[in-house]
């Protein structure tokens, strides 16, 4: 069992969808702002997640210790995000 989890810095993410194509059982594109997010830490193999991390064009995905991951997820709730060109939700 891994002692680390993948984390997407959504403020840096450009919504290119590469990670969701490379490791679709781990990453998805968050519908409100068009950025990548991890939805299942164990969805894909570590090798597939590594490939998604290595091929991210803006290096916004990292492995972090699970204790750090909890802190980062909590901090995300206070982030101000701007929409990446998706139509506004009505």
From TrEMBL:
Cite the GO molecular-function annotations of the record.
electron transfer activity; iron ion binding; iron-sulfur cluster binding
**Highest taxon above the source species:** Bacteria
The record's keywords, sorted A to Z, are: Electron transport, Iron, Iron-sulfur, Metal-binding, Transport
Q: Residue limits of the 4Fe-4S ferredoxin-type domain?
A: 4-32
Per the record, a Pfam family? Fer4_13
Residues spanning the membrane: none
Q: What is this protein's function?
A: Ferredoxins are iron-sulfur proteins that transfer electrons in a wide variety of metabolic reactions.
Name of the protein described by the UniProt record = Ferredoxin
What phylogenetic lineage does the species belong to? Bacteria, Bacillati, Cyanobacteriota, Cyanophyceae, Pleurocapsales
């Amino acid at each position: 069992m891994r002692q680390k989890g993948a984390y997407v810095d959504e403020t840096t993410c450009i919504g290119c969808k590469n990670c969701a194509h490379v490791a679709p059982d781990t990453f998805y594109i968050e519908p409100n702002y068009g950025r990548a997010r991890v939805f299942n830490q164990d969805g894909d193999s570590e090798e597939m997640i590594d490939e998604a991390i290595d091929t991210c064009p803006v290096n916004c995905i990292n492995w972090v210790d699970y204790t750090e991951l909890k802190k980062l997820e909590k901090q995300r709730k206070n982030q101000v995000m701007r929409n990446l060109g998706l139509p506004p939700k009505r």
